[in-house]
Amino acid sequence: MEREQSLILEVNNLKKTYRNGVEAVKGIDIHLDSQEVCALLGPNGAGKTTTLKSILDLVNYEGEIKVFGKPVREVKDRISFVPEEKLFYENMDVNQSLKVLNKILTNFDNTKAEELIKYFDLPRNKKIAGFSSGMKTSAYLSFAFAQNVDLYILDEPTWGLDPIKRDDVLEMIRQLVIEGKSVLYTSHIIPEVQKIADRMYIMHKGKIHYSGSIDELKEKYKVFYMTGDVYDELGDESFYTVVKEQNKISVISNDQNQWNRLSKINEIEVDNCDLEKFFQIIIRGGLNSGVFSNSMKER
Ligand code: ATP
């Protein structure tokens, strides 16, 4: 059966500056199709949580955000959210939380919640405030996955989990999509994104540096490694990104003419660009570092 594709989430030119002047998000676009797992991948402080909070209308922002074609406040009952700061259920234990959730949510599947709580082996009568970080994540995931909604927004859904639970949670996320749901989640762990994301947005310092699938990334970009010996051959030149560490320069290029030219220079090593390399170079170099200049000699 062909998947029905429709736009679940549309974020256009989102900007968020906090009162202290921090520009956490600097004009980004995000689109999520139905039955898609979409990862927002970025290092600490990239602006991922701020983006999710904006989507959920938990902070003021500039730009346009539509969920299911509407402002989020009109469709909140179609969304389940796992926040980064796990404070909501702090003063309750699992049993009390379940009681509250059953009372306030019409879409809460208590049987599913019970199954998940059993799987995560969570204590029933201990205050959630006293849980370890992994246990808190497990509790929040149990409550979130038990909600029968169309869109799951998960901020670091594997935070604090051991490797086995982490893998199982990634599997659970994948399963949601098989059941017809859509997922937007944040991560800074590359293998977690490689494993389940249909599409990813790489975010750094408030900007999106890549959007697309992992396969597209491999097709569109190549990475070139060079040492100081090639300075004279290159001069000032614009690339997608450039980073210099000690005497080694790494360049990412999405321009086929550059690929042809650089590949012909003996001292330059060329490699296919996987997510790991792309992420490392982008994060170390940044998007505005895309000019290879002779001033690199002095750096
Ligand atoms: P992490 O992976 O570490 O959770 P993140 O990608 O989720 O990071 P954000 O939490 O969105 O990043 O933070 C982006 C920037 O905004 C950071 O510089 C952070 O210090 C700043 N920031 C976040 N929340 C606030 C706030 N309430 N007031 C002021 N600045 C904030």
Number of strands: 15
Weakly predicted, low-confidence segments: none
Total number of helical segments? 10
**What is the subunit arrangement here?**
single chain
Give a short account of the largest sheet.
6 strands, mixed
Q: What's the N-to-C terminus distance?
A: 57 Å
Average pLDDT rating: 89
N-to-C SSE string, H for helix and E for strand: EEEHEEHHHEHEHEEHEHEEEHEHE
Structure overview:
The strands form 4 sheets. A 6-stranded mixed β-sheet has the order 5-6-7-3-8-9, sandwiched between helices. Strands 12-13-10-14 form a 4-stranded antiparallel β-sheet. Strands 2-1-4 form a 3-stranded antiparallel β-sheet, covered by helices on one side. The model has no long low-confidence stretch (mean pLDDT 89). β6 (151-154), α5 and β7 form a beta-alpha-beta unit. The protein contains 10 helices and 15 strands. The chain is of the alpha/beta class and 299 residues long. It is elongated, with a radius of gyration of 22 Å. The chain has helices spanning 48-55, 94-104, 110-120, 133-145, 163-178, 190-196, 214-220, 231-234, 256-263, 275-285; strands at 7-17, 23-33, 37-41, 62-67, 79-82, 151-154, 182-187, 199-204, 207-212, 222-227, 237-238, 241-245, 248-253, 269-272, 291-292. It binds adenosine-5'-triphosphate. Adenosine-5'-triphosphate binds next to α1.
